[in-house]
Amino acid sequence: MFTGIVAAIGQIESIESLATPDSTAAEQAQAGLRLMIHAGELGLADVALGDSISIQGACMTAVEIEGEYFKVDVSRESLEKTVGLNRLAAVNLEKAVALSTRLGGHLVTGHIDGQGVVQRFEPVGESWLLVVRAPKNLGKFLAYKGSITVNGVSLTVNSTHDLPEGGECDFSINLIPHTIERTTLKDLKAGTRVNLEVDLIARYVERMLSHGQMPAST
What we know:
Layout: E1 8-17, H1 25-30, E2 33-38, E3 52-55, E4 58-66, E5 69-74, H2 76-81, E6 90-95, E7 114-124, E8 127-134, H3 136-139, E9 147-150, E10 153-156, E11 159-162, E12 169-175, H4 177-182, E13 193-198, H5 200-210
Antiparallel strand pairs: 1-2, 1-6, 2-5, 3-4, 3-6, 4-5, 7-8, 7-13, 8-12, 9-10, 9-13, 11-12
């Protein structure tokens, strides 16, 4: 479990296929990847093998740790459901929370629900306006002043606009200078795809409502 408060910007410095040397072409195409990541300011002294680390919002398991570097294995399924884990690039990092951690953002599982597409990213006064188009299946989870995770960053929805065609939903976010400085969101531009995780509580509410099983009030 995470909070969506990015602790450091890391860097994917090498990528290798998990396919074996004798794999067929089809097997190689379906193989996952092993990423070596420089942890930046994250600090790995308290991270053990098997611990979870959020990378661009996706929960991954540390399989090797050496100095300021750690490695994770990313399955082909995860690669198909996320963006930013298949290339050498800067990434948002967060360690899994401890019970004593302040919940500065919101409850984040690190399980990506889908990908959005940036529509606008531009300065407005001292802040930045970010507008993202969410796919049809995620629009129902977005609400004014609700929470959304974009590339692992816990953010507050300022407005939503359901599109009449296609059922997609545009939502806007105000980014303060601190968020721009401390995350990879500074690199966004119109057309960029981003990892989205909707609010955990909203998912449970939608599930209960869809089955008519809201608990009776006491």
